[in-house]
Structures are given as structure tokens and as C-alpha cells.
Specification:
- With 68 residues, the chain is mainly alpha-helical.
- It is 62% helix and 0% strand.
- The chain is built from 4 helices and no strands.
- Helix 2 packs across helix 3.
- The N and C termini lie far apart (33 Å).
């Protein structure tokens, strides 16, 4: 569970500091920080990034969007 929370925090930071985010860049970032392929697929599926049919997902606002 700790690793999942760590990954979610990394994802939020990644989204905050990048103007555009795609699945490939995010997966590479997580791979670079020490997550393996299986963990990355699980994390992305959990937050609905790689599930095109997920209609009940959520969106994380960037710091800029939060300040507007």
C-alpha cells in the first residue's frame, strides 16, 4: 500500500510540472523511479489512465488550474 501512495504522489507531481501528460511519458517516469512494468500497469489502470472506457474516473487539476 505504501508503494501505491508513493506512486500516486509521484503522478501528481509529474502532472503538476508538465504542461502535457501522456501515458507513455508517465509510465517511463514511473519506470525511472523504480517501479516495474506490472506495477505501472496496475497503477495506471487504478487511476483510469489506460482505460479508454472508464467513465467514472477522476481528473487531477494542475497547480495552475487550481489557482485560476
Amino acid at each position: 500500500m505504501d508503494k501505491l501512495i508513493f506512486a500516486l504522489n509521484l503522478i501528481v507531481d509529474f502532472i503538476d510540472y508538465n504542461e502535457t501528460v501522456n501515458e507513455s511519458e508517465l509510465a517511463n517516469y514511473l519506470l525511472f523511479t523504480g517501479f516495474d512494468d506490472y506495477e505501472i500497469r496496475q497503477i495506471l489502470a487504478l487511476i483510469g489512465i489506460n482505460d479508454k472506457l472508464n467513465r467514472n474516473g477522476f481528473r487531477i487539476f494542475t497547480k495552475k488550474e487550481q489557482n485560476d
